[in-house]
Amino acid sequence: MKLLVVMTSAIAVLLVSGCGAEDEELSLFSTEDAEVHLKRWVEAVVSQDIDKLMECSGTPFRFRSRTWTSAAEAKANLALQLAGLKEQMEKAVRDGGSFRYFSYRDLKDGQFPERAQVSEERREVAISRLGVRREGFIAWLHVGRQSILKLILNAPSSRDRLVVEGVDPR
Fold it and tell me: 23: closest CA among 137, 101, 102, 107?
């Protein structure tokens, strides 16, 4: 019983030490989680498997400046984009491209893809325009400094995983 009290107290201290300050936000997902979820999405694109792609995607789904609000609408429109996305990704890999991940916290701290400079006063607006929520990430596919794709990963309402909710091909 005494050990249980000590363990409970230790866990409470760890939890409380990570809470409290607004800028000390904890995330349910790590960069590694984002990598795993994005890998599944990329595999679906490369294999041209629209059903698997939809399992890894959420709605509303943003593609460039368009937003598809239903799963059926996203599926129909993403199916039309698969070949182009596959070609872009394969070319980027051949050219030595890689993904760089930016969490919501990174964005709040001023770290944006393409080394964009966003003033502290404008960050919330910029993050909102990108579509990244508190548990989310931007995955930036680039070759050197050349931007190829930006993908937005967010947690759905169930908060059990990350899904791709947006693609911005360059």
Answer: 107
Cβ of 17: how many Cβ atoms within 10 Å?
9
Task: At 63, list the tokens.
Answer: 């593609």
Task: Match 């990570």 to its residue by tokens.
Answer: 18
Around Cβ 166, how many Cβ atoms within 10 Å? 22
- Distance set, CA 119 to CA 39, 98, 115 (Å): 32, 27, 12
Bridge partners, residue 43, by sequence: none
d(CA 96, CA 128): 31
User: What's CA 42's distance to the chain center, in Å?
Assistant: 13
CB 96 within 8 A of CB 134: no
Give the list of residues 6+ apart from residue 51 with CB closer than 8 angstroms, or none. none
Query: CA 165, CA 74: separation in Å to the nearest integer?
Result: 10
Q: Sign of torsion, CA 116 98 154 68?
A: positive
What is the pTM assigned to this prediction? 0.80
First-residue to last-residue Cα distance in the chain: 60
Number of H helices, E strands in the chain: 6, 6
Fold topology of 29-169: Nuclear Transport Factor 2; Chain: A, (3.10.450)
Summarised one tens digit per residue, pLDDT across range 43-67 is 999 999 999 999 999 999 999 999 9
